[in-house]
């Protein structure tokens, strides 16, 4: 799968901009703030229908403009695929494939597999469990439609159940039967998600460990541990046991929306006990394992976006990573960096064709 060309109108700091890409490696170089990351984010938009960096959709429209349009032309399985993502202020986002609007955004997820490695990934270590669930969801959803479907239904039911708990509290009323309807739905979808997360990690953890060993210089052991309320009991029982607490809190305190993925080094949390270098290697290993996993599942080489990669790693590590992906016949790579010379020196070592875009 190759992204042949990209054009953007009113996307973040760009008025109008078009690029025709190299089939292998593309580098965006320029000073801080010229919009290198924004271009990568536009490519991310074409795969996921949203920004990797800014969850508020309207903030991706150029200041003072009324809309943005991102247009990508891909070659996939000898077919040309035209993807358009557009947003007008105050309206719903539109995603089109070959002129046809998707009824549901989720139908598009996984069609153009993509992995991004960015300095913002450190949130996975620093922030709360939601970012790590989002990571798991992102990896699994790109190769499993049933997972995404169960996740969307679970999230919708959870919102409804929470609204009901608020309604009960506000109106000093309670109805077990109505709540039970939601409990059963949460149990049904939650069990699917729990089992799929477990199965995913069984495959993913060995890949991740191998990637970490390959890119780290040390011999330390790393691990990922899945934590879920559902490992202790089924969700219906958990919801029943938590009823008084949930009524007091006016939201649902147990379920797979509280799952976490613990990042360990030598059996201790990497957040507290990992060095800067170990944390960086950990994050890169996670993302490369994501690349491997999606590639195996979807039989497509995901597009790989390397944002500001030198911010995380020294030139030797960067070369190692690019060689690694190159050796394994990767698809297409997009890199952003402030220094053209540094990037070019690394790229030339992999003996691939490439294109530099100076911004
Ligand atoms: N909605 C928007 N409208 C206009 N400009 C925006 C919008 N959102 C972001 N920007 C601008 O985009 C620029 C940042 O772009 P980007 O993060 O892509 O830079 P970069 O080239 O990757 O920089 P760095 O090397 O520092 O990472 C900033 O100048 C910011 O003000």
UniProtKB/TrEMBL annotation:
Principal place where this protein is found? cytoplasm
- Indicate yes or no for the key word Nucleotide-binding: yes
Compartments where found: Cytoplasm
Q: Which Pfam families match?
A: SMC_N
Annotated residues that bind ATP are located at 30-37
Give residue ranges for domain RecF/RecN/SMC N-terminal. Answer: 3-345
Q: Which PANTHER family match?
A: DNA REPLICATION AND REPAIR PROTEIN RECF
Q: What does this protein do?
A: The RecF protein is involved in DNA metabolism; it is required for DNA replication and normal SOS inducibility. RecF binds preferentially to single-stranded, linear DNA. It also seems to bind ATP.
Entries under HAMAP family matching the protein: RecF
Stated family:
Belongs to the RecF family.
User: What is the protein named?
Assistant: DNA replication and repair protein RecF
